[in-house]
Amino acid sequence: MSDKILTLTTDFGTRDGYIGGIKGLILSRDPAVKIVDLSHEISPFNIGQAAYAVYNAHSFYPDKTVHVVIVDPGVGSERRILLVEASGQYFIGPDNGIFDPIVYLNEKYRCMEIDPGYFSHVSATFHGRDIFVPAALKILNAESIKAFTKEVEYEYRLLTPEMMEGSKAVVLHSDHFGNIVTALSQEKTDSGDLEGLRFEQIDIPFVSIYEEGDDASPSCLFGSNGLLEVAIKRGSAAEYFKKRWNGIPTSFDVVWK
Known about the structure:
Layout: E1 5-10, H1 18-29, E2 34-39, H2 47-58, E3 66-70, E4 81-86, E5 89-94, H3 100-104, E6 109-114, H4 127-140, E7 149-151, H5 161-164, E8 168-174, E9 180-185, E10 194-199, E11 202-205, E12 219-222, E13 227-231, H6 237-245, E14 251-256
């Protein structure tokens, strides 16, 4: 197996040929690259869902893997294009919050801005193909990144100051089972001090496993990826909130003992 691994995460779906074009570009420039489809079923423009997908999967990949994330509703604007180095891996994507969990949960990271002017034949609507992927190939081939990047400060877009202070659990994603995944990390939380969450007048108790929860009301627990999620035993927390509040909350209040 090639030691050059490039993952792709997009909101493109698979029917329109966009992914096929990107893969063709990669293989025509470097047939030795191993391409992994992390996900192409991100809901259109859903930055939180993309952030969760990349965070959820990245720790299982070897060092020097390059993750290209193309969920970019601001494509063509003056938004920055970022290269983040963390966990021994590289992440390329727009500066819209996609890498908030990666940065927040890694004490050591580097953030660089990619210069779009370095790359030729750049369209106004497909920076993923014309900038993100060519930059990834340069990294995989151990070319110097100094020619097209500069170090910058990372700015959080999805995560809030309240979340950093431990008073809010910001929602990233609702998964296939209807579990509502937040950015509150077990690694940064003493679960012994956590009583649960609250939304409006609903108390959401903390449990250890799904079976400890109630089958009619939500509870919260840390999932296999170490992130706190709101769940209903053998049910859907997402549907629970959609029926009562016409949508999934953007955050929950954290209740400490």
